[in-house]
Design brief:
This protein is an alpha/beta fold and 305 residues long. Helices cover 31% and strands 30% of the residues. Helix 6 (180-188) runs parallel beside helix 7 and helix 8 (255-265) crosses helix 9.
Length: 305
C-alpha cells in the first residue's frame, strides 16, 4: 500500500510531491475530498486555492482543475489536426475524462475506445471532478473498456487513426506503458498514416525514463519526436508529449492547413492554436539532445535546426 504524502506545516495539511528525495513540490490542502487505496493505486482528491480541485495518484499530481485544459488540449488536438482525417481514436488511460472531452469536440471523430485500468479513477472523477470530463462519458461515440491497455493493444483486432497514451508516470501500473513491447503493439493497431502521442513526463527530472522511452519510439517508428507544453501544476517544468508516425507528412503540416482544419472543426481552444502547434516542436537544445535521430527529422526538413 502506498502511503499518501500529507505533511503538516504551521498547523495546516499540505500534499508533498517528492522527486527522488532530492526536491519536492508542496500544495496546501484546503479541503480533502477523497482518499483511498484502490485495487491498483492510491488516490487522493483535494482542493487548493490556486489550482482548484487536484487529483494525485500514488503521490504524483495527475490533474488540476484550473490548468488541465493545457495538457488535454495539446495531447488531443495536435495529433488529430496533424492527421487531418481521424475518425477512430484510441485512448489508453485518461480516466479523468479530459482527453475524451477534447476529442469529442471534433465532429469528424466517429468512434473513441478508451481503455482505463482502474474503474475507481473513472467513478471518482465523475463524482469529484466532473468539470474535467464535462459529460463526455455519456457521449454515444465512446466505448469505455475497463482493462489493461497494454493487453488490449496486444490482442485487439480494431485499428485506429490516432492513438493517445494518457498515462500516469512510469511507475506502478503505468510502467508497462513506456516499454518497447507496448509501443510495438500500439503500432500494430494503427492504420496507415496514423499518429501516436504519448505522455512522456518531465525530462528535466525524469531524464532516464524519458530517454529510454524515446529510444524505443525511435526504433519502432520511421519518424519520432516530441512537442513541449508547460503545465503549472506539474512544477512548471517543460513537459514533453511524444509524437510518432510512419508518415512524415504528419510532422510538416503547414500553419495554414492546421488553421483550416481547426476552422472546419468549428471550435476555439483556450491553449491550442495552430501557431503554438508549430512552435511546440521547436525544442531547446538539451531537450532535443535527448531524442534519438533528431538529425534525420532536421535533414528531411521536418524540424528546424
Amino acid at each position: 500500500m502506498t502511503k499518501t504524502n500529507i505533511i503538516t506545516i504551521d498547523g495546516g495539511e499540505w500534499f508533498h510531491e517528492n522527486w527522488d528525495g532530492a526536491a519536492g513540490g508542496l500544495f496546501r490542502i484546503n479541503k480533502k475530498l477523497y482518499s483511498d487505496q484502490s485495487a491498483h493505486q492510491n488516490i487522493l482528491v483535494f482542493e487548493n486555492d490556486m489550482f482548484g480541485r487536484m487529483l494525485a495518484i500514488d503521490n504524483v499530481i495527475q490533474v488540476a482543475e484550473r490548468d488541465e485544459f493545457i495538457y488535454h488540449e495539446m495531447i488531443t488536438h495536435a495529433p488529430i489536426l496533424a492527421h487531418g482525417a481521424a475518425k477512430r481514436i484510441l485512448i489508453v488511460g485518461g480516466g479523468d475524462g479530459g482527453a475524451i472531452r477534447e476529442v469529442f469536440r471534433h465532429n469528424s471523430v466517429e468512434h473513441v475506445t478508451m481503455v482505463e485500468i482502474d474503474p475507481d479513477v473513472v467513478d471518482f472523477c465523475k463524482k469529484w471532478m466532473p468539470m474535467v470530463s464535462d459529460g463526455s462519458f455519456d457521449d454515444p461515440r465512446l466505448n469505455l473498456i475497463i482493462g489493461d491497455g497494454a493487453k488490449y493493444v496486444a490482442a485487439t483486432d480494431d485499428r485506429f487513426d490516432v492513438v493517445i497514451v494518457d498515462s500516469t508516470d512510469p511507475v506502478g501500473p503505468g510502467a508497462v506503458l513506456f516499454t518497447e513491447e507496448f509501443y510495438r503493439n500500439c503500432k500494430r493497431v494503427m492504420k496507415d498514416g496514423a499518429v501516436l502521442v504519448t505522455q512522456s513526463g518531465l525530462p528535466f527530472v525524469q531524464r532516464k525514463e524519458f530517454t529510454e522511452a524515446f529510444s524505443h519510439l525511435s526504433g519502432i517508428f520511421d519518424y519520432a519526436s516530441a512537442y513541449q507544453i508547460v503545465v503549472p501544476g506539474f512544477w512548471g517544468c517543460p513537459m514533453l508529449l511524444g509524437f510518432a508516425s510512419d508518415e512524415k507528412a504528419r510532422f510538416s503540416v503547414s500553419h495554414e492547413t492546421l488553421r483550416g482544419r481547426l476552422n472546419e472543426a468549428g471550435f476555439s481552444a483556450r491553449y491550442y492554436t495552430p501557431a503554438h502547434h508549430k512552435s511546440a516542436f521547436h525544442l531547446a537544445g538539451y531537450l532535443r539532445d535527448m531524442i534519438p535521430h533528431t538529425e534525420k527529422l532536421i535533414a528531411e526538413g521536418l524540424l528546424d535546426d
